[in-house]
Amino acid sequence: MICPNCGKEIPDGSFFCGECGSEVKNVAEEVKAEESVVEAKKEETPVVAEPVKEEANEPEGTVETEKPEENNTLSIIALIIAIVGLALIFVKGYLTGVAGIVAIIMGALGRKQGARSIGTAGMIIGIIDVVVVALWLIAVVGIAFFALAVAVS
Hints:
It is a single chain. With about 150 residues, the protein is mainly alpha-helical. It has two domains: about 1-45, no CATH class; about 75-150. The chain has four helices and no strands. The chain has helices at about 25-45, 75-85, 95-110, 115-150.
C-alpha cells in the first residue's frame, strides 16, 4: 500500500503512515463498503418502467393558442363618448373636455380588461378632445381680451 500524502510504501492494513504520520484509509475496504451500499439500494428500489406518451402529430402552422377573453364594453363606450365629445365642441365646448376625460379613463379600464386596440383608440380620441377644448378656451379667452382691449381704447 502507498501513502496518499507522501507517496512512501507502507504495510497493508496500516492506519497511519510511518514516514509522514498522516492517517491512511484502507482503500480496498472503502471500495467494498461502497459496493455493498450500491447493491443494497438496487435491491430496495424496484425498477418501474414509465409509459411512453405519444405526441399528437399536428401539421405545422395549425397550432391553436387560447386567446384571453376580451371584454370590449368599456372600450367601445369610451370610443363613442370620445367621438360624441368632438361633436359637442360646437354646442357646449366644455362638454368636450368632460367627454374627453371620461373617454380617457374608460379607455384605460377597457385596455386592462383586454380590449387593447379599441381602448387605445378611445384614449387617443379622448386626448384629442381635451386638447381641442384647451385650444378652444385659449381662443375664447384671447378673443375676449382682444374685444376688451378694443373697447377700452
